[in-house]
Amino acid sequence: MQKRIIYGIDIARGSSRARELPRYALAILKDGEVSHQSMLRRQKIFNMIQKERPEIIAVDNIFELAADRNELLSLMERLPEGVKLVQVTGGLHPEPLVRLARKHGFSFDPENPNEEAEACARLADMGVGHEVSLFEDITKIKVSRARSLGRGGWSQNRYRRKVHGAVLQRSREIENTLRDLSREKGIRFEAVNVKGFGGYVRSEFTVYAKRGEIPIHPMASNDAQVSVRSVERDKIRYVPLKPKNSRRKFTIVGIDPGTTVGIAILSLDGDLLYLKSFRGIAPDEVVKLIAEYGKPAVIASDVTPMPSSVEKIRRSFNAVPASPGIEVSAEEKIALGKTFGYSNDHERDALTAALLTYRSYKNIFTRIEKKAPQNADIELIKFHVIHGIPIEAAIEKVQASGEPEKSKPKERAEKPEDRAIDETLLKMRETIQRQSEQIQNLQEYLEELKEELIAKDRKISKLESRLNSFKKEAYSEIRKSKEIQNRDEIIESLKKEVSKKSKTIKELRRRSNKLRKIQKMEVRGEGTAVKVIAAFTKESIAETKEKYGLKAGDVVFLETPSGGGAATAQILVEAGVRAVLIPEDISHAANETFFKGDVPVLKDIPLERAEDFAMADPETLKAAIAAWEKEADAKRHKAKQDELQSLFEEYKSERRRGLV
């Protein structure tokens, strides 16, 4: 069996704040035997700690080992798992070491560093002092790239995928390990993964447990690296040591889970030891708080089935689960908690769970108290019965283990009056001592809370200031981004409009150049301009009119003259065109309309085409128009003759009818 080892350390020469490294006196306590070593450097002592792994390192002032908080933090990170640093003189309000030694029945020479180191070790062995805690029960694990990706090259993507793939693989291995740990021990964790090309850029895990409880260690490979560190507290916390050979009390704990957690703790006698609610408290903090008030025999919830968050806390204590099995009304909860008092519904529900559980065991506890021997450890018997052992078997087990004897029978008989007085005095002394310790703890805790509150107020103020700054920046960026987007849309729309207008301008310039060219030819007498109409339809006529205009005196060419009728021909007549050129015959109705409108219709006139324009020889056109006009005059003259002949014939006919 390994011996209990405690190191007592006292500074022998120099100071932790001096330039010259200090020397220390070391007292090593092994099961009551003490050995001394003098004038050791701090590094030498830490090498011995790494080798022997003592249970406790006891000092009268932690800043004899380190000059400041940062140096102390560095030293504590190097301590092996399970080694406690204890300041035997107390926490926030230390008590002189000489007075503590005298209080616990021994004395030493305060001028002798060896004796002072031994006093520290012996006091720590008695359970005197406070453990120094600089780390939360939270561990951060980070997986990241082990090297930079560089500026890149032809194989940059393949290299990036390889590195990110290594980070992904390592992250999954760690996550699988943490999931197994969560199933086995109920340890909660959170993961944040940042994806990259071909894998993860980095992964961060927040594990709500001490670093020593997690089987993951720092490592580095060619592509990925893993760092593991405990989360530092905002301030140093001093945790009182448990007195030597003291057994923790058994309790019944009721928990109401949720964003606000209610906690109620009862003794096995039904006394309320603790009742409070916390908003946003972590599960490990709940476990730690419950443990400070004893060992839970039962963890209870006021709902059935028990919520998973309460079940995890129960498993961490290996306690018996309990729940009412039926829905408890609000009126019943109020009636149950009225005697004890509570601040909110969360405390009420937690208290209900604990009280209902105690009531369910009350009859069994009464039977145990009647059956148990006078000097038996009744609380331990109750604990065994709660865990399913019959009452008689539990009594035999406690008696056989040698634990039940709280006080051996005195050899000589005492008077009942003296015994009663002694018991009363003993209880009063215990009560006074317990209350004094409780008051001191509460005072220390109050000071800690005040300091934490001030620090948190400052932190909140800074964070609010940063948040406001971020909001302004974000709003400015959003507004700028929106304005840029609107402007981009306007610019894109204007670009399309400019492009469209550029095409129109280009087309108009082309037409203008053609018109100028034709006008020059007309002026020089080289030809007569002819406007080409693609088809003998209203639409084609309108299109030509829109593009090039259609005015009196224009000569037009119907590229496809078929299809048009009198109405279509009338449009050209009304426009006052000089002549209509056709490659083939048009309809009789159209021809008649042109004839009546005195518009020459000329067929097979030679033309020189240029897209929507054509040129006709002026003389040829003039001769063709003259020929048409001559033919038209003859046609009109013949029409008049025919009309006169018709009138004459009609007259003759009427005369004959009259003579008859």
Polypeptide structure, described:
By secondary structure, this protein is α/β, with parallel strands linked by helices. It has helices at 42-52, 69-77, 97-103, 113-125, 156-185, 283-292, 308-317, 330-337, 345-371, 378-386, 391-401, 416-524, 538-548, 566-575, 588-596, 618-659, and strands spanning 5-13, 23-30, 33-40, 56-59, 84-87, 130-145, 189-196, 199-207, 219-220, 224-240, 250-256, 260-267, 272-279, 295-300, 320-322, 528-533, 555-558, 579-582, 601-603, 607-610, 613-616. The chain has five domains: 5-128, 2-Layer Sandwich (Nucleotidyltransferase, domain 5); 137-148 and 158-233, Alpha-Beta Plaits (2-Layer Sandwich); 250-384, 2-Layer Sandwich (Nucleotidyltransferase, domain 5); 472-521; 527-643, Cytidine Deaminase, domain 2. The chain is built from 16 helices and 21 strands. Strands 1, 2, 3, 4, 5, 6, 7, 8, 9 and 10 form a ten-stranded mixed beta sheet that branches. A six-stranded mixed beta sheet has the order 19-18-17-16-21-20, with helices on both faces. The protein has a five-stranded mixed beta sheet with strand order 13-12-11-14-15. A hairpin with a 2-residue loop joins strand 7 and strand 8 (199-207). Helix 8 (330-337) crosses helix 9 (345-371), helix 10 (378-386) crosses helix 11 (391-401) and helix 14 runs parallel beside helix 15 (588-596).
